[in-house]
Amino acid sequence: MTPRPLLTRAVLCIAAAACAPLVAQTPLFTDGPAFGGSKVFSEGMNPLANPARIGHAPAGYYLGYVDGDQRAQDNKKRLEATTAGDPATLAALADAPWALRTRAYGLSGVKNGASLALTREELNGMLFHPAAIAANGFLDGRRATVDRLSVGGGGPVQQGSTTAMGGSLRIERWAMGQTTLPYATANFAGAESDLLNGSGTSHRNWNVALDSGIVLEVAQGVRLGLTADQLNPKHIGDVYLQPQFRAGLQLDFGQMAMLTLEGDINSAERMPFPVKQQAASASLRLAFSQAASLMLGVERRKIDEASVTRAGATLQIRTPSLLLAFGFQAGQDRPMKGMSVMVN
Prior knowledge:
With 344 residues, the protein is mostly beta strands. It is 12% helix and 55% strand.
């Protein structure tokens, strides 16, 4: 297959995925849909991805960092245009009500199909709640941080098997804070910076989560995968964490390209918002050589009834003893960026 038909077909598949029904997963170690990677067919070092892929990662120590924003389409513009007493601007904001700022970093060690990871996430979000009477609407600012210990294992069910399975245990300590701004008295545009840079937390909670996953190679170069996170439901504040399932299909095109399509099967609440979330993504990995590859992807993410589509890319340099990856996702105001390093 020549490169041009391959790229044309991949672009069509990515466009189809972007129009699919619509967790959001923090792309730690640039190993996630936001940066052209995958959750179902993870590279194995991300403790929030499919544990069946842990055996896929080369042994080593991985460092990762992620920082940036995601917003509903035109959220910032509509927030700035909101005028007190104007129902029209309030209705426009209700169609693009959320923004989320994420910072995460961590250390993961992988060896012999087992992993141990220490990670921290800092989430600052705001969600507009409309009301039957316009003046009763309010902006809900959320701050959540989580310190996480993850232990997992996975890989082929037996030597030479084309089926891989895995599971992981996450022990999390959450700290949460909330600020409520009534529409009748608040300057929403002026409050944006404070809400997305907040630091105060007043509540603490613990969570123990079980995740699992499976990857099956149904033919040469064709893989199916399924992962499930938070198998044990848990309330953290007013957010009800329920199991969320994600399925994917991965296709190899010779040695130079690999296409991945995946999406959440069900919607579920995830921190910091007490509303359901769901996402779908497509990515294309292009290998220029054994050491250098480029990952391109698009992700459609829905929080409550408002969604946004974003494209991302990661440049990865890999040798037997070193991994360097730099990722970027286009977005409004403060695009998401990430970096990961592995030393063997």
